Amino acid sequence: MENLYRQFYDLLEKNIGIQLDQNKQYLVDSRLVDLAKSTGQQTVPALLKHILNTPAGPLHWQAFEAMTTNETLFFRDKSFFDALSNVILPKLIEARSNERSLRIFCAAASTGQEPYSLAMLIRDRFSQLNGWDIYIQASDISEKSLSRARLGVYSQREVERGLEPDLLRRYFSKTSESNYEIAPAIRALVNFSRHNLLDEGYSYPKFDLVLLRNVLIYFGAETKDRILKNVHRQIAADHGLLLLGATESLIGYPHFKLAQAGKISTYAPV
Ligand SMILES: C[S@@+](CC[C@H](N)C(=O)[O-])C[C@H]1O[C@@H](n2cnc3c(N)ncnc32)[C@H](O)[C@@H]1O
After folding, report:
1. From atom 2 of ligand 1, which residue's Cα is the shortest distance away?
2. What are the pLDDT digits (tens) for 127-178?
3. What domains can you pick out in the chain, each with its CATH number?
4. CB-side exposure of 83: number of CA atoms within 13 Å?
5. 117 lines ligand 1 (CB under 6 A)
6. Ligand 1: does its nearest atom lie under 6 Å from the Cβ of 112?
7. Quick one: which of 74, 88, 80, 193 has its CA closest to 136?
8. Is 243 exposed, middle or buried (0-12, 13-18, 19+ CB in 10 A)?
9. What is the pLDDT of residues 184-228, one digit of tens each?
10. How many angstroms does the Cα of residue 70 sit away from the middle of ligand 1?
């Protein structure tokens, strides 16, 4: 039985990078129990056996996705959005003033609160960008999260997490007793697509800014290296920046140069 779980951990890491501790059997059980039942396998070990003995297909990906943690919220980490607003975006806007275009990649965007926060910030604080070509590419491996993100509809509880009442009033409309839909003008700034960070992805045109927040924590050192190599290739060499989550850092990583912007760290490709 233990061996069954160990083989599933290996398969999970190989396909989406997530590394689980050997003692996370309870997590696998709780995340896969519904999938096991819905596929007629009855128990999680039976589902795992089936997955391990059949060639990779949609069921495998459903199981991998079920193991992702999709926790997110609007304007997650105030220092981060303050730094974006006061230091990082003004500098980028200056660097891109001839081209009048800004390309931002929001990787591992989950259900969309992060890229929509960024889009609201841009529309709210940077009226000088009206008429610019603004492109926010948001991606995730989880189709389930992406379809929610594309819909742009959030519950009362979700909009209460991180969103100022004034932004809720101006950028959302109430669609039912307890649901709010993001304004079309904000929605239009964000393009959602499925992308596995282990895959190379597009490297041209390069991005001016890449957000890769609260996801590196799930990967082992080798996977982290592989992902950072992919991301490095996608960032504009002269002015582009990579931004991580509050608990993540790349100290000592030779391909990125660390600098400070407000209270957060930024990483420029070298
Ligand atoms: C905790 S959420 C972070 C959401 C958002 N970036 C934030 O900081 O609020 C982590 C996301 O990473 C995604 N993820 C995990 N492994 C991935 C992979 N290999 N490729 C792309 N996305 C992945 C998960 O599906 C999940 O939605």
Report:
1. 70
2. 999 999 999 999 999 999 999 999 999 999 999 999 999 999 999 999 998 9
3. 2-66 (1.10.155), 78-269 (3.40.50.150)
4. 18
5. no
6. no
7. 193
8. buried
9. 999 999 999 999 999 987 777 899 999 999 999 999 999 999 999
10. 6
